[in-house]
Write a structure and sequence with these properties.
Distance between the termini: 23 Å
Number of domains: 1
Number of strands: 0
Pfam family, one: Sigma70_r2
Structural class: mainly alpha
Largest sheet: none
InterPro entries: RNA_pol_sigma70_r2, RNA_pol_sigma_r2
Protein name: RNA polymerase sigma-70 region 2 domain-containing protein
GO molecular function, one term: DNA-binding transcription factor activity
Strand content: under 5%
Number of helices: 3
Shape: elongated
Order of helices and strands: HHH
Helix content: over 70%
Length: 57
């Protein structure tokens, strides 16, 4: 597993439930899963922006 894989899995584990609940309240059950998927797709693509590697700084 790469460092980015680990970082993404941690990000997802810590925030997926809250993002999904937010999407349920705002967009409803028909759209919440898509919002969750799209949110974390963007997070994966921009993982260095979402979770900067603190050791690099």
């Amino acid at each position: 597993m790469t460092t980015n894989d680990y970082r993404f899995r941690r990000l997802y584990a810590e925030h997926a439930t809250a993002v999904h609940r937010f999407a349920l309240r705002r967009a409803g059950p028909d759209t919440a899963d898509d919002v969750l998927a799209e949110t974390f797709l963007v997070a994966w693509r921009r993982i260095d922006d979402v979770l900067p590697d603190r050791e690099r700084a």
